[in-house]
Structure formats: C-alpha cells, structure tokens
Write a structure and sequence with these properties.
This protein is α/β, with parallel strands linked by helices and about 200 residues long. It contains eight helices and six strands, in the order βααβαβαβαβαβαα. It has a six-stranded parallel beta sheet. The N terminus is likely disordered.
Length: about 200
C-alpha cells in the first residue's frame, strides 16, 4: 500500500480490475434481526451491490450459515445463482475453500456486505485485513444489532486499516464515463442505491 505525504497509508480505491465482493449471511432469518437499519434496506442495498458486481464482472462470493434461512433473491438473481459457501464459524475466512477461491481471483480489494455488523462483518473484515486484503465495508448493505455496538465494530475495522464506505460510493467509483453504456448503467445503479437507502 502506498503512503501519503505525511506517511500515513493511502487508501486503495476499488476498481473493476481490483475488487471482489463478499456477501455475508444475507439470509432471511438473519437479516430479520438487523436493528440499525431495516432488513429490507439491507437486502435492497445488497441487491444493488450484486447488480454492480454482475455489471462489472466482479468476482462475488456468498458466505452463509446453515440455520440462517434462504439467501436473498435480490443477491442471487443478478449473480446468476452462484454457489453458497456454508460455514460454522463467525468469520467467512474460516472457510478454506472460499479463501482459496478469493485468492485465485487475484483481486486485492474486498467489499463486504452483510449481517450482523458486529459479528460476521467485523470478524471477516479483520481476518481479510490480516490476510493482506484492502477491505471496504458497504455500511448501507450491512445491519447491526444495536447502533452502539455497530459503531464500535466500524471503529475497530478502521483502526485495523479498513474503510467504511457505501454501495452508493462504490457505484460512483466504478461509474467512469457516463457516456458509455457501462457508465450509464452504473450511474443508474448509483440512483437505485440512493433510493434503496431512503426506503
């Protein structure tokens, strides 16, 4: 990672060439427990993120827990129904197959979305950072159990070198030239993510 003039680490911006997306437990029974934003907003935000991944051919991975219920169709459908990576621990990085596939993708920036912010999102973010990934957490596609505990999770991720961002910002970073077909489609997703956040 490069440094700024004052010696602090420079942020690595996500691009269509360096980013991958990891969806964590966007499952019916788990999303229903989100309290910091509604479960519907989590699903809508994650759905826009899935559309961005599909549009820009970003590798996308889905981590789930067996008792969590069905994964959100808003995520599955844009991605063409990718396989789920089931796990039995509170971090997606406990799944050796997922870690291997992510490494094989060659991507260095990992965008996270899911529930709960204080559990799987936090643990996965810290493990991804320890593994050398640049981590961006899309907070408008995450839900926490409580605003205080979620804010503590964000502070811990930032202290470890991660970045809090949003689906809206990520879409804007990918948009590029609005006059191209891909740029125009991405700009439409910027506005869709803004609408999703209002709901």
């Amino acid at each position: 990672m490069s440094s700024t003039r004052d010696g602090s680490p420079a942020q690595v911006l996500p691009t269509a060439e360096n980013a991958a997306v990891l969806f964590l437990d966007v499952q019916a029974q788990i999303v229903a427990n989100a309290r910091t934003i509604s479960g519907d907003r989590v699903v809508r935000g994650a759905g826009v993120l899935a559309k961005l991944a599909a549009l820009h051919a970003l590798p996308a991975f889905l981590s789930s827990v067996p008792p969590g219920g069905d994964f959100a169709r808003d995520v599955l459908e844009p991605l063409g129904g990718p396989p789920l990576h089931p796990r039995t621990q509170t971090t997606a990085f406990a799944d050796a197959a997922l870690v291997r596939e992510l490494a094989q993708s060659g991507r260095t920036v990992l965008v996270l979305a899911g529930v709960a912010s204080e559990i799987v999102v936090l643990r996965t973010a810290l493990d991804a950072l320890a593994a050398g990934y640049v981590v961006h957490v899309a907070v408008d596609a995450c839900g926490g159990a409580d605003s205080r505990t979620e804010e503590a999770a964000w502070r811990r991720i930032i202290a470890a070198g991660g970045v809090t961002t949003s689906v809206t910002t990520f879409a804007a970073e990918l948009a590029g030239d609005f006059t191209t077909a891909t740029g125009a489609a991405t700009l439409a997703l910027v506005y869709e993510s803004i609408a999703a956040a209002r709901g």
